[in-house]
């Protein structure tokens, strides 16, 4: 089935909104269960969209964005599953889903690329913040927000217009090692964020505390396999040490001592 | 970059108390926490966007506003649905004109643990249950399925966002009196907790592993499993310390660091190197 330009543009609009909503705003409009009937209605079969969307939703429940890891992309996978089910004119979910898989992977790669290229923008924000440019910060944030929406709109429109073959062509046009390399590079960028925090927070006496936190988290992660509660336990441990430190130093101050032994050496 | 920031605000007089309207405005803005998400500082840009209305009311001195905006652009990552809790606490500290080190330490200490709690509430409990019920309705051809899903999910989401914002701002404001009395001791304790959490984040969020295999006849040596046996998470720690060294001692800019990591990742992924 060929779709009209208006239908393609409307799917693009859905892709734009869902591309943004998967990270910002309601963070629920993008779920396949919601997108399914909407994309279905645009392409002329809301009922089929409703059911395909629900099937895809049940698959997605198993792959949530837990702990910041990126699962196969729900937005493009969900939209394209409906597009292909309707263009094949069959409610054969398995077949439509198989065609949609390259787009799910493409969506995941698009997200990774976007989060990588968006990193240098933070330096521009630093410059704006140093000038207390409130409007500038707000504007740049919105540019980045719309950017990812446009990226998803374009991929959704290409898929709807050019069909399933394009998904395969696009997702294999770049050699696998480039994706691996970009993924590895992107995955390491957070260490720069940590390093800057360390630079402004750490002083001689705190190095051992940093290592203690690192070691504790490694042990707790290993003990529970899935590190979902690790940081809660870390907060309890760290909170206990911090509370003890606070009590001790206020008492020392109360009896006339000098808590934290000196001003310049502790760096705070 | 955020390296040579002052530690104290110039205008030490208590900032304006934030009215309900401003707090509610920031609840709405908190929906866009991840609007400029990136791999380096994650939610930092959206975090600043969210609290800006409050910061503008509190810091009438322009230099103070600039200082506050700069330190609030440092690495930030928490659970998107629970962020208003951190917002309320941080804004009450900003209002009392606490020093930058204190605010930063509290921010870091609060953001980490919320991630685990939020995942447990939303992604592991609320979504599977509501999506399960709603998907069954949809499968039987009932359009109420998606509507039910949106209503429940967003009802819970907005109730939590709204409650946490107002509650934590009140909580923070009422604790300020005691804390300013022992400001130095509190900063020391909060920094300790903050550093402890940063150390934990390096391990908990640092997923970088290597795929390097040393050919050894029938028993090739997988380097990562050797490392896991000696010192798990050695690689995330080593990269973080290298970045710290480059930034703190070698005057590398943040952009230079992320670019080097990207090049390092690409070179390491070349088929004949096979590091990643």
Structure description:
The complex is a heterodimer of chains A (268) and B (276). Chain A is mainly α. Chain A folds into two domains: 5-189, no CATH class; 202-253, no CATH class. Chain A contains twelve helices and no strands. In chain A, helix 1 (5-21) crosses helix 7 and helix 11 (207-224) packs antiparallel against helix 12 (230-254). The N and C termini of chain A lie far apart (67 Å). Chain B is mainly alpha-helical. Chain B has two domains: 20-183, no CATH class; 206-269, no CATH class. Chain B has ten helices and two strands, in the order αααααααββααα. Chain B has a two-stranded antiparallel sheet with strand order 1-2. At the A-B interface, helix 2, helix 3, helix 6, helix 7 and helix 9 of A face helix 2, helix 3, helix 5, helix 6 and helix 7 of B.
Question: Could you tell me which chain pair has the largest interface and how many residues each side has?
Answer: A-B, 112 and 124 residues
- What is the overall silhouette of chain B? globular
Distance between the termini of chain B: 30 Å
Write down how many β-strands of chain A occur, each being a DSSP E stretch of 2 or more residues.
0
Cα-atom radius of gyration of chain A: 25 Å
**Cross-sheet strand order for the largest sheet of chain B:** 1-2
Overall mean pLDDT of chain B? 89
Arithmetic mean pLDDT of chain A: 84
The number of domains of chain A: 2
Strand pairing plus helix content of chain A: what structural class?
Answer: mainly alpha
Low-confidence stretches of chain A: 66-70, 261-268
